[in-house]
Design goal:
about 550 residues; alpha+beta; GROEL, domain 1; 2 domains; seven-stranded mixed sheet
């Protein structure tokens, strides 16, 4: 009699599991699928994607992180690649497509080595060595840039906007972007810090992008509290109030009992007097424009209007903070405390109709540490895409100024890295050498993709680029418009060093993590318990 071995089940029967080579291959395929989705958007000749959500809302963009966020990716490994784009966006604000394409290519090259029975941990170690050397090389390649290098900063902004919705007006927009960053930049102990939260990008349809402008102050999506208030206030003295100009309700439940009409009149007169004293206090402080974070009673509005004070109510907290930075006013939490010392200054405060909505302009501030970029565009989709391009450019200029280093774009820096890494891999022994070689080949995906997206022959371009770099032309990159090799630095195609260092580190880390996974266990989602009906209960 033979003993049959009973199979042992340790997982629920509806659990899906992939192990070993199958798991690795599936993961790599998922990562590559994400990379392929955004790959065609890279570079000046990159194409756009149209994303339509379940409600029918349309987004037309070639911004990598926007595409990946809106795609609602399901595969767990694909989600890890989307995280790379989000990290890149948070850290730098640009280079999301580069990071994702690089991660996809690192895994593609790794797959070839896995097929040759190179162990995943050896691969991961080799990639780590290559990334460390690449970071060292990048720091050596970086050229210095300072806050006052306006011409160089403009070229960085133009490079960021090339190939995006803002390309037609990139010269004008780049000037605005550089001015905005120079305005809000602050120096501490020799280091420059740029807080982009102090810069507001306001998007409005109805005009061409040429009409975009930089307001030396703030633009609020609000209107005056009362129609009889002045529309324009010159040389405005600004008060910021974080308190309501209204009659307070009692904290505890209280009942007021009135026995004759005289008492009612006295009660109403008292309320009116309280509101009048609030308006008088604002007037006595010398304020000609009042921005209130909370409500303003109708009667208080009337008194303020009679005094010729321009008032805006229910202003967002973030806008109040920016107003304080722009005008130098101090935020006050009690109207009784308002004094002339708390007021800020603005050359002009006005209400103007922009498109079909009223907006408040607080402009011509003397030394504003918060400014507004008013971006215009013909239609909603266009203005949204121009806004995304401008945000990328702002991120690039800000990070260039903060890190103080920039490199040539157009695939030049990647070709130089690939050349140096191939030399570095000759100094290694063992199988890590293969991984470093694969890393060097993977980095070339950026110039290759730039050439492919421009309809050029990638093999011809890469061959010419390699020859140019071997001759010591370290900024030799792809000229996608003429189909030739060009000096990226001389052509003004310049990118922040941080874009490259961050993309490399994020892409390498996620590739290493994915390579080390050899078992994927997918548990079935638990269904919510079925609700019992009266019929079920009765059986």
């Amino acid at each position: 009699m033979t003993n049959t071995i009973q199979p042992i089940f340790i997982l629920p029967e509806d659990t899906k599991r992939a192990t070993g080579k199958d798991a690795q291959r599936n993961n790599i395929m998922a990562a590559q699928a994400v990379a392929q989705t955004v790959r065609t958007t890279l570079g000046p000749k990159g194409m756009d994607k149209m994303l339509v959500d379940s409600l029918g809302d349309v987004i037309v963009t070639n911004d990598g992180v926007t595409i990946l966020k809106e795609m609602q990716v399901e595969h767990p490994v694909a989600k890890m690649i989307v995280e790379v784009a989000k990290t890149q966006e948070d850290a730098v604000g640009d280079g999301t497509t580069t990071a994702v394409v690089l991660a996809g290519e690192l895994l593609k090259k790794a797959e070839d080595l896995l097929d040759q029975n190179v162990h995943p941990t050896v691969l991961a170690r080799g990639y780590r060595l290559a990334e460390k050397e690449a970071q060292r090389l990048l720091r050596l390649l970086g050229e210095p840039v300072a806050l006052h290098d306006t011409a160089l900063l403009r070229q960085i902004a133009i490079t960021a906007m090339t190939g995006k919705g803002a390309e037609a007006n990139r010269e004008h927009l780049a000037t605005l972007v550089v001015q905005a960053v120079q305005r809000i930049a602050e120096e501490h102990q020799g280091k420059i810090a740029v807080n982009l939260d102090h810069l507001k990008v306001e998007k409005r349809t109805g005009e061409s992008a040429e009409q975009s402008s930089l307001i030396e102050g703030l633009v609020l999506d609000k209107e005056r509290a009362h129609s009889s208030m002045p529309k324009v206030v010159e040389q405005a003295k600004i008060a910021l109030l974080d308190a309501a100009l209204e009659i307070k309700n009692t904290e505890i439940d209280a009942r007021i009992q009135i026995t004759d009409p005289g008492q009612l009149n006295a009660f109403l007169d008292q309320e009116e007097q309280s509101l009048r004293s609030m308006a008088e206090r604002v007037q006595e402080s010398g304020a000609t424009a009042l921005f209130c974070q909370r409500g303003i009673d109708d009667l208080a509005q009337h008194f303020l209007a009679k005094a010729g004070i321009f008032a805006v109510r229910r202003v967002k907290k973030s806008d109040m903070e920016k107003l304080a930075l722009a005008t130098g006013a101090r935020m006050i939490s009690n109207w009784k405390e308002l004094s002339p010392a708390d007021l800020g200054l603005a050359g002009r405060v006005r209400e103007e109709k922009v498109g079909d909505e009223e907006m408040i302009f607080v402009e011509e501030c003397r030394n504003p540490k918060a400014v507004t970029l008013l971006v215009r565009g013909g239609t909603e989709h266009i203005v949204e895409e121009i806004g995304r391009a401008v945000t990328d450019a702002l991120g690039d200029v800000a990070v260039s100024v903060e890190s103080g280093k920039v490199v040539g774009g157009a695939g030049a820096v990647e070709m130089e890295l690939a050349k140096e890494l191939r030399q570095y891999c000759r100094t290694l022994q063992g199988r890590e050498q293969l991984a470093v070689q694969a890393f060097a080949d993977a980095v070339e995906v950026i110039p290759r993709t730039l050439a492919e997206n421009a309809g050029l022959d990638p093999i011809d371009i890469l061959t010419k680029l390699r020859a140019a770099h071997d001759q010591g032309q370290r900024w030799a990159g792809v000229d996608v418009f003429r189909g030739e090799v060009m000096d990226a630095w001389a052509a003004g195609v310049i990118e922040p060093l941080k874009v490259k260092t961050q993309a490399l580190s994020s892409a390498t880390e996620v590739a290493e993590m994915i390579l080390r996974i050899d078992d994927v266990i997918l548990s079935k989602k638990e269904e919510p318990p079925k609700r019992m009906t009266p019929a079920d209960e009765l059986g």
